[in-house]
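4.2 Preliminary Data

To establish feasibility before requesting continued support, the project team ran the inverse folding procedure on a target of 270 residues. The structure was first converted into the token representation described in Section 3, and no sequence information of any kind was made available to the design step. The complete token record follows.
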């Protein structure tokens, strides 16, 4: 079976999984105070959209841009699920930091801000602010000193992306995530993969440069992991259906990746 046939089979497996995942987001119900459920269902909805984009992009190398986002998303979700009461709440409550920054940005640009809305955001932020204080801000608060100009984490986790990957045992996935950044950030390492020599000079191609298969395998893995997490947390009873989908995909993915170079070893999780 040639490469295009292999990719075609794996795309069909991904499309089948998208259909299963869509049944979850269309029917799921959960309690308002279940922060992990809210986070997981939101992440699943986004992963479905990303998977659909991967399918639409076909053989384009730009699938790696989408899959890079999918990898980051599933690792954040798995990290939150390790301590769901605290971490999922942090994800949800970071909205106050986000919105307060948006207000400051509007004010810096001289744009009007609705006073009642600003007050709601200020009150919400005050209630959760210590959860997101940087080390310097926490020390200043303890001393009774003025807070730094920017007292909050840059993101809701307060951690670097690599730390999140490591915390969920995804160091190998991070290596792939990092290699994909060559394409995202216009590095010669990424563009060089699309330069193909010929007797007439160099040709530039945007497909079949060694990344597409790995990206497609990882897209399935990210969507499956997210769907499984939602299924387990909300006890939706989709375990058998998801396992069948995984088993069908696993053997095809394993065979397809047998000849992949070590730097792109994205072997499916067993």
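Position-by-position output of the design step:
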């Amino acid at each position: 079976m040639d490469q295009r046939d292999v990719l075609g089979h794996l795309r069909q497996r991904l499309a089948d999984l998208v259909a299963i995942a869509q049944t979850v987001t269309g029917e799921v119900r959960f309690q308002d105070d279940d922060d992990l459920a809210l986070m997981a269902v939101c992440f699943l909805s986004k992963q479905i959209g990303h998977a659909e984009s991967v399918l639409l992009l076909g053989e384009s190398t730009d699938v790696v841009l989408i899959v890079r986002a999918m990898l980051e998303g599933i690792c954040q979700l798995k990290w939150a699920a390790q301590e769901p009461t605290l971490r999922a709440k942090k994800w949800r409550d970071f909205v106050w930091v986000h919105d307060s920054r948006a207000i400051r940005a509007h004010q810096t640009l001289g744009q009007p801000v609705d006073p009642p809305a600003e007050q709601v955001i200020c009150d919400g932020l005050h209630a959760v602010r210590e959860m997101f204080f940087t080390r310097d801000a926490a020390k200043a608060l303890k001393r009774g000193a003025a807070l730094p100009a920017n007292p909050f984490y840059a993101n809701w986790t307060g951690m670097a992306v690599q730390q999140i990957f490591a915390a969920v045992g995804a160091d190998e996935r991070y290596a792939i995530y990092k290699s994909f950044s060559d394409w995202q950030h216009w590095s010669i390492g990424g563009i060089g993969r699309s330069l193909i020599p010929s007797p007439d000079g160099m040709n530039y191609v945007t497909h079949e440069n060694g990344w597409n298969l790995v990206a497609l395998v990882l897209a399935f893995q990210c969507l499956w992991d997210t769907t499984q997490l939602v299924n387990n947390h909300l006890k939706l009873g989709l375990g058998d259906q998801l396992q069948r989908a995984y088993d069908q995909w696993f053997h095809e993915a394993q065979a397809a990746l047998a000849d992949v170079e070590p730097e792109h070893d994205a072997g499916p999780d067993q």
